[in-house]
Design brief:
There is one protein chain. With 193 residues, the protein is α+β, with helices and mostly antiparallel strands. It has one domain: tt1808, chain A (Alpha-Beta Complex), CATH 3.90.1570. 25% of the residues lie in helices and 24% in strands. It has four helices and ten strands, in the order H-E-E-H-E-E-E-H-E-E-E-E-E-H. A hairpin with a 4-residue loop joins strand 6 and strand 7.
Amino acid sequence: MVRMTAPAPARPYTADEFLHMPENEGAELVDGRIVAVPMGSISSWIGGELLFLVRSFLQSNDLGWVFPQETGMTIWPDRPGHVRKPDLVFVRKGRLPGGRPPAGWLTVVPDLVVEVVSPGDEIEGFETKLDEYRAAGIPLNWVIYPGTRRAHVLGANRPRTEIAPDGILDGEDVLPGFTCKLAGLFAAAERAD
C-alpha cells in the first residue's frame, strides 16, 4: 500500500490549523505536511481491544486517562507543525492541565503510547515515529506486530526488547498492575473474524 501525502501547501500547516481541518481524520501532520496514516482492520481492532482492556483496568485503578487512536499529540515544542496520533495514549493522573483532557491536541508528553503495525506502514517512517517518541521522553512504548504476533517494548531511556507470542505486555511502573497476554489479544482478533 502506498502512503498518501496531501499536496504540499504554499506554507506548512500549523498544528492548530490541522486541528480544524477535515483532512486531519486518518492523518498526521509531519512538519507541516498532511500524511495519511493507513490502518488495517486487524490492526485497528487490536488497538481498540487494547483500549478496552486498559480502560476496564482503569475503572478499578484510578491511575489516569487513556485515549484512542485519532488523539493527536503536539509534544514537540520546536516543531509547531507536528502532530502524531498513536493507536493508544495513556497519561497518568495529575499530569493533564486542569486535571482533564484538553479541547484540542494533547500537549503533555504521555506516559505510554501504543502503535499497532498496519500493512500500509512503511518501515522507515514508522521507525522515525518511534525515534520521535523516545526523543520526546515517553517512558513506555508498546509496538504490536500482528503479522508476527510479537511486540516490542521501548522508551526514552531503555533499549528495545522483544516480547514473544506467548509473552505479556506489562504496564510496569507506568500502569502498575496492568498486564495483557499477547496470545490472548491475537486469539481474540482471530475470533472476531
